[in-house]
């Protein structure tokens, strides 16, 4: 039987690469954390992995016109803003992510309280020795598919 | 616990002009200018031999200027070597933290006289570079790759506040209009122009160029126009603080030594500091319309001094964005949650209102050299309480209690100080 991997940032990212939203649940007090942490944010007991449904609602958002370099590299600019959102997951905790699948320039297409689901977004962070791109995977959100 | 074991006096304060100085003036030059300005307002003078230690605030000369290890360098420029000199980092609250450490060092009896300062030279990088360096004060692991920027994080806070309390962009515009009006009267401010004056400048330029004359009927129409572009919705250009080069310096002394420097010392009667998660999404119970670090810092300062928000005559709050000024007024206890906007509309926070807020012009017009900002706020309160505020900026009512509120990042650090005319 494979041993359960330790809760680390890197393992969280590995799960995102596998398109799984893995948070943490405290066996002692039942508190749930996302992003996961080894030490429960309520009682500091050692938490265990817990898979999330990926569903949540927009807690707050903003359309960013003067963007972070990581986003301007992807082609976003003053004419094409991207949307940064904080999403409250149905399991309780909130997490930050880019909101995609909406019309960023039409503020009627996204709002506080809007139901969304996780999607997995990749960013090239560097190239390896052979010149192949190395990606990082992050959680993002899109409107719930009907 | 929660008390200063000895009284601590503020005996002198001054700042360089905040502005776009690089390459004409760099940190080294701005720091020396701050010394000269602080000396001018230290009635009986002060010498390096009088000073026991330097507490320096600087966010990230490492990223802005490829310069670490700044405290001994700055100490050298004002003749303090080989005395202890340390740098404190708490993003935009760096010199607020340095100030608290300096106060505690005197209260504890380790020091009798200290210099507290802040310096930041940001214009060596272009706007994209500055934005990138500032982003290091947010959560790089989980927020940055989601696209967070500083305006973006405060914009997210603003949208949550709008949703919960019905606050509007017009409420935020009133804050910008007021702060620009104050900055006009501050000769040390980066921008010394009111919003109507900015509008007039655009009108004249259009006429000169033979373009159609703009027809804004008032400041609000101008602030909704393309001349005030969205940075991160709902925040626009004039909601945001500036990129600034600047330095500020303060001299603190024990009660025994204070009168060697002035007959009219001010007293640090309360001080507090709070912390919170770097990331917005990790805030306790999902509350982002209020900053817990500010509340914790204010509670400590109030309890240390025995004062309450009702006693405060003037306050400099950390208005890195208009929404931050509004929320600070609620978190510091001046107004109930959701009520500050109405008080601002009534004019209570204007220079000669019930509670003058950011008479310096705030971070939006005086400027925001991040590591120097906290010390710069104390310079303004010092000038106001001692009657040294230049021209029209001087508040007319008597000022017995002044407050400063300095934030780091999206509210992960907060420092609140209460400065009084009388010993408490
Ligand atoms: Zn627990």
Can you put this structure into words, describing what you see?
The complex is a heterodimer of chains A (146) and B (424). By secondary structure, chain A is mainly beta. A five-stranded mixed barrel of chain A has the order 4-5-6-8-7. Chain A has helices at residues 9-17, 69-72; strands at 22-25, 32-33, 48-51, 55-64, 82-89, 94-99, 115-127, 133-143. In chain A, β5 and β6 (94-99) form a beta hairpin. Chain B is of the alpha/beta class and 424 residues long. Chain B has a single domain (8-126, 242-420), classed as Peroxisomal Thiolase, Chain A, domain 1. Helices cover 36% and strands 17% of the residues of chain B. Chain B is built from 15 helices and eleven strands. The model of chain B has no long low-confidence stretch (mean pLDDT 97). Classes of the chains: A mainly beta (146), B alpha/beta (424). At the A-B interface, β4, α2, β5, β6 and β8 of A face α5, α6 and β5 of B. The structure holds zinc ion. Residues 26, 28-29, 31, 40, 42-43, 45 of chain A line the site of zinc ion.
């Amino acid at each position: 039987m494979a041993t359960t991997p330790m809760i680390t940032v890197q393992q969280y990212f590995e799960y995102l690469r596998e398109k799984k939203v893995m948070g943490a649940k405290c066996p002692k007090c039942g508190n749930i954390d996302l992003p996961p942490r080894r030490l429960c944010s309520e009682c500091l007991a050692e938490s265990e992995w817990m898979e999330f449904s990926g569903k949540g609602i927009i807690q707050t958002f903003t359309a960013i016109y003067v963007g972070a370099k990581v986003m301007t590299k992807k082609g976003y600019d003053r004419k094409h803003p991207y949307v940064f959102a904080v999403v409250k997951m149905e399991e309780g905790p909130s997490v930050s992510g880019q909101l995609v699948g909406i019309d960023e320039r039409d503020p009627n297409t996204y709002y506080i309280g809007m139901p969304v689901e996780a999607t997995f977004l990749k960013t090239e962070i560097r190239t390896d020795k052979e010149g192949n791109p190395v990606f990082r995977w992050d959680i993002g959100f899109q409107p719930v598919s009907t | 616990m929660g008390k200063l074991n000895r009284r601590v006096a503020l005996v002198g304060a001054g700042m360089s002009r905040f502005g776009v100085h690089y390459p004409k003036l760099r940190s080294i030059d701005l720091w020396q200018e701050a010394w000269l300005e602080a000396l001018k307002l230290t009635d009986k003078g002060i010498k390096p031999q009088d000073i026991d230690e330097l507490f320096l605030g600087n966010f990230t000369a490492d990223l802005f200027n490829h310069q670490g290890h700044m405290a001994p360098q700055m100490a050298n420029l004002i003749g303090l070597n080989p005395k202890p000199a340390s740098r404190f980092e708490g993003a935009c609250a760096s010199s607020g933290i340095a100030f608290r450490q300096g106060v505690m060092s005197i209260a504890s009896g380790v020091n009798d006289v200290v210099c507290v300062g802040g310096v930041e030279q940001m214009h060596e990088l272009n706007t994209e570079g500055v934005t990138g360096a500032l982003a290091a004060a947010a959560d790089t692991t989980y927020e940055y790759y989601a696209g967070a920027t500083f305006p973006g994080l405060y914009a997210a806070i603003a949208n949550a506040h709008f949703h919960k309390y019905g606050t509007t962009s017009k409420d935020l515009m009133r804050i910008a209009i007021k702060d620009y009006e104050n900055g006009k009267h501050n000769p040390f401010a980066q921008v010394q122009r009111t919003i109507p004056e900015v509008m007039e400048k655009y009108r004249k330029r259009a006429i000169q160029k033979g373009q159609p004359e703009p027809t804004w009927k008032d400041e609000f129409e101008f602030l909704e126009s393309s001349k005030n572009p969205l940075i991160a919705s709902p925040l626009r250009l004039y909601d945001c603080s500036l990129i600034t080069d600047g330095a500020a310096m303060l001299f603190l002394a024990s009660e025994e030594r204070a009168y060697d420097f002035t007959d009219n010392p001010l007293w640090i009667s309360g001080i507090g500091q709070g912390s919170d998660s770097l990331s917005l999404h990790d805030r306790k119970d999902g509350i982002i319309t209020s900053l817990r670090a500010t509340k914790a810092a204010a509670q400590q300062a109030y309890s240390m001094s025995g004062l309450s928000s009702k006693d405060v005559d003037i306050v400099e709050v950390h208005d890195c964005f208009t929404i931050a000024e509004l929320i600070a007024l609620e978190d510091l206890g001046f107004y109930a949650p959701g009520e500050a906007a109405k008080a601002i509309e009534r004019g209570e926070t204007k220079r000669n209102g019930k509670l003058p807020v950011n008479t310096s012009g705030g971070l939006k017009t005086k400027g925001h050299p991040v590591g120097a900002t906290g010390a710069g706020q104390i310079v303004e309160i010092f000038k106001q309480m001692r009657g040294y505020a230049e021209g029209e900026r001087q508040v007319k009512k008597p000022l017995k209690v002044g407050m400063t509120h300095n934030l780091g990042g999206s509210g992960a650090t907060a420092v609140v100080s209460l400065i009084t005319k009388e010993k408490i």
